[in-house]
Amino acid sequence: MRLVLGALGRVLILLLLFAPPALAQAMPGDADKQAIVGTIRKQLDAFQGDRAAEAFGYASTNIQHMFGTADNFLGMVRTGYPAVYRPRSVDFRELVTTGGRIVQKVLFVGPDGVPVIAEYFMERQPDGSWRIDGCRLDRSGDTSA
C-alpha cells in the first residue's frame, strides 16, 4: 500500500521532523521562573562585589570552558558589558523561548545612563538548577522588550 501525501502533508511531516525544540518545550513554571531570576540576580550581585569565582559559577559549562578562568570571565564582563557589570538599574522583563532556548529579558540602565535590553540564554542543569549560557545585549535603546 502506497501512501500519497499532498503538499500540505509533506510540509507537516517536515515541520515535525525538523521542528526546533521550542515547539515541543513548555515554558518553565513559576518555580523555575523564580530560580532563573534568582540565578541572574546572584550573578549580578557577585559582579557588584567583584567576586569573580562566584559570578563564574553561575555560567554554564560551555561559558566556563570558553573563558577558562573566573578572572578572564570577569574581565570580559567588566570591559564588554559595563551595563551588566555596574548597572544603575535592573528591571526583569518577560521570559520567552527563542530558537528552542529559554531566554530571560532584562532591561539595564548602564553607568552611562543608556538603557539596553539583555537576553540571558538559560540552561537547565541535570540537578534542575539553572545556569547562564550567554548574554546578548541590544544596544538599540528599545525599552519595550
From TrEMBL:
The keyword Signal applies. InterPro entries: DUF4864. Keywords: Signal. It comes from the Bacteria. Pfam families: DUF4864 (PF16156). Residues 1-24 form the signal peptide. This is DUF4864 domain-containing protein. It comes from Inquilinus ginsengisoli.
